[in-house]
Amino acid sequence: MKWFAIFVAFLLLIAFPFKSRDSTMDIKTAMEAVNEEIFDMLITRVMKMAHMSALSAAIIKDGKVVWAKGYGLYDRERNKEATENTIYLVASISKTFTSTAIMQLYEKGLLDLDDDVNKYLPFSLRNPKHPDKPITIRMLLAHQSSLAEDPPAFYCHFPGDLKIEGYPEPWLEEYLTPKGIHYKPQIWADYEPGEEMNYANIGYSILGYIVERITNMSFEEYCQKYIFQPLGMKNTSFELMKLNISNIAVPYIYTGEYEPLLHYQILDYPAGGLRTNVIDLSKFLIAHMYGGEYNSIRILSPESVEEMHRVQYPSHKYFFQYGLGFQIWNIGGEKYIGHTGGLYGVATKMVYREGDKIGIIFFTNKGVEKMNEVIAFSMIERLLFWKATHDKKELSKELMEATVDANKHLLFLQ
Fold first, then answer.
1. pLDDT digits (tens, 9 = 90+) for 173-184
2. What is the pTM of this model?
């Protein structure tokens, strides 16, 4: 990846403006001189290259947030500067909450991971090409149900909190079953459930619906009562109306100039409709980093967390493996666990390194749509780990190339 090495060298050179009296200082020495000014310069230059309007980020070490900050403008029309408290739509990071809700129900004995999902649905969910093969909850959690990757038309969005009558039922049945008015055969893969991974958002819509049917609560109500409120996540919701809209990052697209989008919701909100800030989300990540507990509040057992963070069905289809609601990467021989998110006008990541339990979270209010933007997104990830450890190895060519590979899916998957 020669082009990538050139990019990194260029970034470092422009970040460290040498003067004649510092002629003996080389790039290696400069990299070791980590300080806030240099770090901020690097972040803002990467943002500029990728036309990111705003960025909010946090670093977790030793079970607590040790640094958090915002950059740029989260609302350009009103000249509002981003902070660590700015709220963003986090897209597929939402899946980690849906899976956590399912695992809580599992711990209470209200479902089993290897149950046929039809035990909990008012309609029969089967791949018509394999009608005798049950689809389990575990398969849905691990994207192994034989539901195919979602067609582009699936990513419909609508302004604000507009309620769609008939969702999730009967819409899910009409979309997933052969006699349904929204059904298309392409939503099912040719292979059997459990045979191969296909990243299908609709599977998480089904899981959210199962939570609602078992608990007799809306998905939002359940998450508020059993996840958000216990962890003290006061600026987190699947519903726009429950948040301070003046503190929510405006999503942007860039076409030579920044074009704002309306605040929107997606139909399959359990798969990608959560809004939060990096401070709130850090509490959830810390709980997952430390066996299901944050600040003496337990949301999951250590055994459940271990199972969620374990590769369920090894796959070579993507640049990541999948647990139960969590992506798993091998980067430089180290295990990284978390999730990315990408939608119209947003790109996000929550991840921790298992070996040293360093976690990072970062959100931006512009989507990743081109390869140079994947590189910039990945540079921010590596810079955050660099800031956390002060180890120049975090910016090695090998780790940066591996991180770019790990994030390539943002161009194709949400």
1. 999 999 999 899
2. 0.93
